[in-house]
Design brief:
Converts trimethyllysine (TML) into hydroxytrimethyllysine (HTML). GO terms for molecular function: iron ion binding; trimethyllysine dioxygenase activity. It catalyses: N(6),N(6),N(6)-trimethyl-L-lysine + 2-oxoglutarate + O2 = (3S)-3-hydroxy-N(6),N(6),N(6)-trimethyl-L-lysine + succinate + CO2. By secondary structure, this protein is an alpha+beta fold. It contains 11 helices and 25 strands. The relative contact order is 0.13. Bound molecules: fe (ii) ion (FE2) and zinc ion. The site of zinc ion has 6 residues, from loops.
């Protein structure tokens, strides 16, 4: 018997051996599949540990090979040893995944433990599997691809915490001290009216760490609207959208005019705000107040190349943080957090907490441990200072940056300065970015896929 498929418009035929079919649905021994020049070699291993129904990709198609009662494995030989584990509970049919809510609609616990796959059919858009509990399941090819995994257990590795090794996801570029004319910029009118330009804007923030928006009307309302074009504004104990004037001629010191060294905001939150937008509405009767940005990832990469031990110290040693300025609150993250957070799935740095103003005392650290941390922190601080970019904000040009990556600060200033701005949550920004960049279908097809490849929306974190 032969399978025939169409692959990229070309009709292909695959001749399966009799054994191939003989073993379909059987459960007494394990079938081993090996790829030869132009055919599949099927051999038998006995005794088998457990019965399995296995299919494999062949010339771009998935082939059924053999069965285990509840799990279907699909090795993908063409890109190394990949396989996918299919379970009835992961069925993607409209009965199992609600078409509108995209939520699971089947009762996992009603599935018999010993359910088995009776047959596998290759349909035009996916695998149809007939399960022994009379459910006909469907697994689209578009969904199968992102759900394959390395055969030799990197699945298990992914759930372990790894030592710090890398600093940032590949598609992001480090910017060593760009001149101000190299700063990414985009126009307000475009991002407000065109979703494609909005997508470009969000990608610039992600790849470069910051972006200027030009032509913003110099009003709080327009600035608020610009932030809300991405997502709702995040409220904190300081409020939501802010708009304040530091008016030193009237000695209003509610907000200071002092120098602020490079830092990230919200080191004390369990979930620090991801984006921050500033817009200088006016600055009169004075000078100064330039804004400072530093690429913390680039600085971390430099630290790692100059002294891996220092890098490791800041990535591995968790530190306490707090915000206690308001009389009625003392905010601390629910778990202490390191300066460099390494992503547990992607093995990349994805978040920096750096705020010397907000560090809490180290308790239960030995003198040696403390010394090691200060040495590393001092080194990082020196690198940060050598990479600072200074820009004078102008009314009409809003600055937005990634608070998980870029450190910000400002110089002293005189005169009357009115600034406004706000925060956006990580989850809402990343959701918007992924949806605009990849499209809803691709994002949904990759749910649960944690591979660090640029085609996977999850590689954007
Ligand atoms: Fe700040
Ligand atoms: Zn189903």
């Amino acid at each position: 018997m032969a399978y025939s498929f169409e692959v990229e418009g070309v009709e292909q035929t695959y001749q399966a051996t009799p054994l191939f079919y003989q073993q379909l649905g059987m459960s007494s021994s394990k079938i081993i599949l090996e790829e030869e020049a132009n055919y599949l070699k099927i051999s038998q291993e006995s005794p088998a540990p457990k019965p399995q129904l296995t299919t494999r990709e062949w010339k771009g198609r998935y082939e059924a090979a053999w069965s285990r009662p509840d799990i279907l494995k699909i090795p993908r030989v063409r890109r190394g040893n990949k396989e996918v584990t299919l379970q009835l509970e992961n069925c993607q049919c409209p009965k199992c995944i609600h078409p509108d809510t995209k939520q699971r609609a089947s009762d996992t616990f009603a599935i018999p433990l010993k359910v088995k796959a009776n047959s596998v059919e290759h349909k035009e858009t996916g695998l149809e599997i007939s399960w022994s509990d009379n459910h006909t399941g469907f697994y689209p090819y578009e969904w199968l691809h992102p759900h394959t995994q390395n055969k030799h257990g990197d699945r298990l590795e992914q759930n372990r915490l790894k030592p710090a090794r890398d600093t940032a996801p590949g598609p992001r570029t480090f910017n060593p001290v760009p001149a101000s004319d190299q700063s990414p910029r985009i126009s307000y009118d475009e991002v407000m009216s065109d979703d494609k330009r909005l997508s470009v804007w969000l990608q610039l923030i992600w790849t470069r760490g910051f972006c200027f928006v030009d032509g913003v009307p110099t009003t709080p309302e327009a600035t608020k609207g610009l932030i809300e074009r991405i997502a709702f504004i995040r409220h904190t104990h300081y409020g939501g959208f802010w708009d304040f004037t530091a008016d030193l001629t009237f000695k209003d010191t509610a907000y200071t005019n002092e120098f602020l060294g490079a830092h990230t905001d919200n080191t004390y939150f369990t979930d620090p705000a991801r984006l921050q937008l500033f817009h200088l509405l006016s600055h009169t009767d004075g000078s100064g107040g330039e804004n400072l940005l530093v690429d913390g990832f680039a600085a971390a990469a430099q630290l790692r190349s100059e002294n891996p031990t220092h890098y490791d110290e800041l990535a591995r040693h968790r530190h306490p943080w707090h915000a206690s300025g308001n009389d009625d609150s003392c905010i601390q993250p629910s778990a202490q957090a390191p300066v460099f957070s390494i992503h547990p799935d992607l093995d990349k740095m994805y978040q920096i907490r750096w705020n010397d103003y907000d560090r809490a005392p180290k308790v239960n650290w030995s003198a040696e441990e403390q010394l090691a941390w200060y040495r590393a922190a001092r080194h990082y601080n020196e690198i940060l200072q050598s990479r600072e970019m200074w820009q004078k904000l102008e009314p009409g040009s809003a600055l937005i940056f990634d608070n998980w990556r870029m450190l910000h600060g400002r110089s002293q200033f005189t005169g009357k300065r009115r600034m406004c701005g706000g925060y956006i949550n990580n989850d809402d920004y990343i959701s918007r970015l992924r949806m605009l960049k990849y499209g809803r279908e691709c994002v949904l097809n990759n749910l649960g896929n944690v591979r660090n490849v640029s085609s996977n929306p999850y590689s954007i974190v």
